[in-house]
Amino acid sequence: MKMNRKHVFALSLVGALFALPFILFSMAGGFLADRFSKRSVAIGTKVRTAEDSGLEPAVVCAPGLRPALRGFLVRLLPHVPVLSYDELADHVTIDDLGMVSIDASAAI
User: Fold this and answer.
1) Which residues neighbour 43 within 8 Å (Cβ) at sequence distance 6 or greater?
2) Do the beta carbons of residue 61 and residue 67 sit within 8 Å?
3) What pLDDT is attached to residue 61?
């Protein structure tokens, strides 16, 4: 099959249009990966999922971790309370929606 200029142009255009989303989204993905840590994305995703389900999420953590975690999350999720285990009253019931952890060897 002999290809003329129209066919070559059309084939080139199809290839360019196929590659365009990869080029555009890889730049945006790279920017977001540099801007936000894995931990904040994981916590934000869990909180947003709970809010979309009509729940009022809270982050519960160890007492020594609470101040640092609150400082970390205040920019990302200012409306979400961060509580330590010691601050929970005996009569409060908490539904565990998930646990966020990052492997220490992956955090570089």
Assistant:
1) 59, 73, 76, 77, 100
2) no
3) 87
Least Cα distance to 58 among 84, 38, 76, 37 occurs for: 84
The crossing angle, in degrees rounded to 10, of helices 38-52 and 66-73 is: 80
Residue 34, token pair as written in the block: 């540099």
H helix intervals, the chain: 5-35, 38-52, 66-73
pLDDT band at residue 108 using 50, 70 and 90 as cut-offs: very low
Judge whether 40 and 72 are in contact, CB under 8 Å.
yes
Residue 104's pLDDT band, with cuts at 50, 70 and 90, is low
- Is residue 105 over pLDDT 70? no
In sequence order, which residues have a C-beta less than 8 Å from that of residue 104 and are 6 or more positions away? Answer: none
- Cα–Cα distance for residue pair 89/85, rounded to 1 Å: 9
Residue from 48, 49, 59 nearest 88 by CA = 59
